[in-house]
């Protein structure tokens, strides 16, 4: 932190913003030590900048957007950047629940500040109220409504990004001009900062929504870990609690570490998912052995009678047994009459008469 002591509020903000922008386009993995070092640097710079904003009383709750100086307006982004940066923290010994709580606190501060200074649109106010009301419980709005809101925010975000790009191009084009064009430069810069704030507001709402969803999963994991520590086995608290489906191997090994990290692969299923699997699963018992294995098992149990073979030949009729000869002759005659009355294929005419 000593290297930051000589930096002004503007320098702390601009350098933190620049590093955060670089991270958005970096090829580094989020778990890379270099990536995490940059995240830590951003948080240190912006945390100090946030403290200076409070000490200097730059913003007043009685001010609307038009009352705020253009040079100070950009400092509204500090809490949004902090909320985004904290979500990027990852590591082996990190408590994810605390990360989510801290990030959400900054995002709530940012959205509250935007509301105070009249920077929030009506459709955003509705979502903020929904997220605030259901804090820690996950969103309660229908899935279709969530999808429509997400699509609308995505379209707005794309339009705002295009606006920011155009304003940045205008600023770069008039950067070297002075005197009579100073007023125009300030107006363009103000529009650019306001567009940045709107973009970060959309991102903050998206991150806040994702945090509430992740909180539900994290709490379920904590409940599972507590139950396993108490009972020494996997169980479900009630129908709302998750059930662990895993193979039989590794039952003598713990599912989670003390920090709550999974040690073995598993699938989380609630009661609804179990019922869904029963409805859309197989409607019959799948075979557990081949036909050959089944026959071998039946033979071993004595359920198959061995023997058989070709039918024995019919003994010839004695030439002196006239009754037998007459009976054989009548049998052949009856068969010939039957064949004449019922030619081949007569019984398979497909109901054609």
Could you characterize what this model shows?
InterPro entries: TAP42/TAP46-like_sf, TAP46-like. GO terms for molecular function: protein phosphatase 2A binding. This is TAP42-like protein. 59% of the residues lie in helices and 2% in strands. It has 353 residues and is an all-alpha fold. The chain has two domains: 227 residues, Alpha Horseshoe (Serine Threonine Protein Phosphatase 5, Tetratricopeptide repeat); 48 residues, no CATH class. The chain has a two-stranded antiparallel ribbon with strand order 1-2. Helix 2 packs antiparallel against helix 4, helix 4 runs antiparallel to helix 5 and helix 4 packs parallel to helix 8. 16% of the residues are buried. About 5% of the residues have low confidence.
Characterize this entry briefly.
This protein is an all-alpha fold and 353 residues long. 59% of the residues lie in helices and 2% in strands.
Number of domain units:
2
Name the CATH superfamily classification of the largest domain: TAP42-like family
CATH A-level architecture of the largest domain: Alpha Horseshoe
Shape descriptor: elongated
Which range best describes the helical content: under 10%, 10-25%, 25-40%, 40-55%, 55-70% or over 70%? 55-70%
What is the makeup of the main sheet? 2 strands, antiparallel
Instruction: Write down the CATH topology of the largest domain.
Output: Serine Threonine Protein Phosphatase 5, Tetratricopeptide repeat
Intertermini distance: 101 Å
Per DSSP, the total helix count is 11
Query: So what's the CATH class of the largest domain?
Result: Mainly Alpha
CA gyration radius, whole angstroms: 39 Å
Query: Per DSSP, what share of the residues sits in E-state strands of 2 or more residues?
Result: under 5%
Total beta-strand segments: 2
Would you identify the regions where 5 or more consecutive residues have pLDDT less than 50? Answer: 234-249
Query: What class do helices, strands and sheet pairing give?
Result: mainly alpha
Compressed to H and E, one letter per element, the order equals HHHHHHHHEEHHH
Strand order within the widest beta sheet: 1-2
Pfam families: TAP42
Region (Disordered): 334-353
Protein name: TAP42-like protein
GO molecular function, one term: protein phosphatase 2A binding
